[in-house]
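Help needed: design a sequence for this.
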């Protein structure tokens, strides 16, 4: 068992002074005899009286620790810089102790007051910083904040908002709800962050109304969340015009709890996955849902019935007319929570979270700045060098969006197409991938103005042309994307120059600019080092440096004392009650099923394989039904022109295979 060592020996050795009225010190008593051996010269720096961590070292260690560097590594670096631990003046254990002592200062009931104080200071300095909070009996129950850059980002990319509330801080068990979007590089972007104390409807209404007020009343097109009755009620009240979408990942996880007996049946998981995520039209969804109930005899299942009653919120086929960027999961927001939770301890406070939140947003903005630089200065190589349509897309879109566009274009080249009807300038085609697509998509194209629509509705949902449209554009030799089909949010024009990328934690105003503490520290260190180097050989210059140091130190001590008095006088906001259970982590609780089932990684290639496999299996399950319902010589096609059911279309031999010569194809169609 570990016990703390006792170094006390009862030594009576002492030195006593008396001070006269004139300030003269006189030795009045001296006991020279010690009852212990003297410390060796090589161990003198280990004495408690000889050890101490200066404030400058403490702030540097805290900065490095917040950046993800281990304290032991920081101490090792400082030790080498000082020329050894004896010259440094403190041990590694001292560094840990002083950090813990500094953290304990936040446990005196001032966490909420300190955080709101930070918000107030930022609002005084930043012209477009917004925050709001609510108190109940003096206790902080909910708050929200965003900076000016988040408002600007929302103006450009606020058509999609992802909101997740599965993250909680441990100390107060408050619910964190970041508002996440997707920028022109398909990367995460932050619109703001809020905390609420409970999941009542009133709490969500306050949070959403505050968010809406901070954004000037602009509503999103799609609002994606996890499944929650309180949240759904609040969204319907605050964002009546927004399309509320449910996270399909949570639906898949919940299915493991409620219909595990069905998931064990052959091919059920693939068919269920296709129904939930892959259907392009309502008619296709109805067809596959009926087949799911028929084949697996689950039409009376309570959970599936309840799921079906909310189909408009989770099935993509019902939301194709609303922009969502192709996002099916709120894991964009959950990835934010994971980024923050990895850096926080189990006893994280609100101020701890705020600092980590600012660091994450800083990293996102630096990453976006790097992508902007690559887009503005670099040109990506095209697979088809002389293709004018691809060239135009490369000039207009950001690199990530062009990659998606080029991928759709190349996939479209392997699709078959067939002219179904022609009326003046309007052409209607069926486009499908032979041997893969059981149900064909219909593309309507106007040769006069190049307007086009497709039954898959990828453009209205994602804002990028699908492979079916690009196949027909290739057939008709369309050389550029019509301006009406170019979404500004995906273009290089969405890049804003001269954007302040830094999120301000604690700020100082110098020459009209807001500089980070760390940047200011580096600049001032260089200046002082220059002065010290120049003063080393001049006694008078040394005296001036000493006087300047004492003057600055007295000024800072006076300012620090005044700020402590002001803070204690204005301390009116109380921390939320602590409700952390022993051992609870600062991430959302995971079910036993989720722990046992590995989540499919979100790599594009793997997700495409999953989608392709689920489609193939789903079609194999319903193949017998299709053979029975579709007459010989006919094929299935998605409905057009307001129809609500899958169509039986005659399969004539006038079909154009991939890479067919376009001139011959057009001649045959016109004849």
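Sure. Designed sequence:
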């Amino acid at each position: 068992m570990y016990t703390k060592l006792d170094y006390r020996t009862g030594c009576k050795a002492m030195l006593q002074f008396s001070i006269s009225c004139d300030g003269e010190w006189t030795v009045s008593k001296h006991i020279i005899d010690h009852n212990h051996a003297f410390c060796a010269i090589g161990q003198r720096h280990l004495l408690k009286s000889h050890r101490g961590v200066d404030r400058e070292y403490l702030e540097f260690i805290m900065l490095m620790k917040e950046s993800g560097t281990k304290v032991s590594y920081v101490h090792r670096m400082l030790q080498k810089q000082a020329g050894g631990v004896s010259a440094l003046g403190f041990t590694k254990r001292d560094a840990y102790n002083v950090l813990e002592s500094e953290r304990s200062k936040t446990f005196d009931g001032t966490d909420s007051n300190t955080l709101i104080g930070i918000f107030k200071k930022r609002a005084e300095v930043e012209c477009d910083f917004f925050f709001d909070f609510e108190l109940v009996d003096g206790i902080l129950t909910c708050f929200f904040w965003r900076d000016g850059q988040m408002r600007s980002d929302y103006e450009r990319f606020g058509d999609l908002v992802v909101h997740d509330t599965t993250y909680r801080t441990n100390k107060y068990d408050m619910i964190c709800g970041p508002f996440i979007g997707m920028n022109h590089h398909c990367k995460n972007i932050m619109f703001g962050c809020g905390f609420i104390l409970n999941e009542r409807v009133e709490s969500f209404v306050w949070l959403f109304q505050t968010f809406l007020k901070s954004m000037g009343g602009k509503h999103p097109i799609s609002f994606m969340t996890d499944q929650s009755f309180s949240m759904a009620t609040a969204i319907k009240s605050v964002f009546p015009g927004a399309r509320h979408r449910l996270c399909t990942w949570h639906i898949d996880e919940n299915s493991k709890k409620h219909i595990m007996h069905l998931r064990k049946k052959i091919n059920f998981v693939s068919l269920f996955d296709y129904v939930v995520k892959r259907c392009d039209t309502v008619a296709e969804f109805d067809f596959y849902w009926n087949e799911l109930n028929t084949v697996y005899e689950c039409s009376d299942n309570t959970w599936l019935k309840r799921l079906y009653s909310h189909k408009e919120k989770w099935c993509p086929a019902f939301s194709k007319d609303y922009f969502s960027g192709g996002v099916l999961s709120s894991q964009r927001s959950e990835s934010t929570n994971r980024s923050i939770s990895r850096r926080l301890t189990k006893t994280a406070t609100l101020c701890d979270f705020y600092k980590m939140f600012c660091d994450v947003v800083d990293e996102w903005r630096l990453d976006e700045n790097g992508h902007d630089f690559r887009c503005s200065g670099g040109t990506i190589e095209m697979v088809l060098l002389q293709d004018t349509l691809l060239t135009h897309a490369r000039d207009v879109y950001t690199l990530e969006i062009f990659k998606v566009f080029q991928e759709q274009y190349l996939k479209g080249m392997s699709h078959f197409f067939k002219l179904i009807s022609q009326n003046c300038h309007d052409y209607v085609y069926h486009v499908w991938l032979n041997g893969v697509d059981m149900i064909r998509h219909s593309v309507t194209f106007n040769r006069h103005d190049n307007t086009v629509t497709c039954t898959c509705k990828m453009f209205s949902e994602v804002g990028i042309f699908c492979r079916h449209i690009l196949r027909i554009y290739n057939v008709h030799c369309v050389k550029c994307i019509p301006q009406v089909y170019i979404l500004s949010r995906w273009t290089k024009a969405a890049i804003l120059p001269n954007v302040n990328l830094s999120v301000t934690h604690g700020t100082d105003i110098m020459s009209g600019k807001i500089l980070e503490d760390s940047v200011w520290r580096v600049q001032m260190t260089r200046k002082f080092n220059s002065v010290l180097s120049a003063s080393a050989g001049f006694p008078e210059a040394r005296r001036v440096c000493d006087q300047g140091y004492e003057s600055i130190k007295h000024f800072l001590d006076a300012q620090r004392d005044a700020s402590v008095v002001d803070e204690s006088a204005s301390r009116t906001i109380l921390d939320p009650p602590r409700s952390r259970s022993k051992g609870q982590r600062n991430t959302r609780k995971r079910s036993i099923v989720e722990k046992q089932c590995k989540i499919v990684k979100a790599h594009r290639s793997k997700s495409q394989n999953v989608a392709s496999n689920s489609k193939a299996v789903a079609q194999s399950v319903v193949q017998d039904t299709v053979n029975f319902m579709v007459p010989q010589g006919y094929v299935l096609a998605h409905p057009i022109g307001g129809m609500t059911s899958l169509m039986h279309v005659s399969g004539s031999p006038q079909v154009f295979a991939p890479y067919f010569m376009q001139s011959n194809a057009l001649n045959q169609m016109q004849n």
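Residues 383-494+627-670 form one domain.
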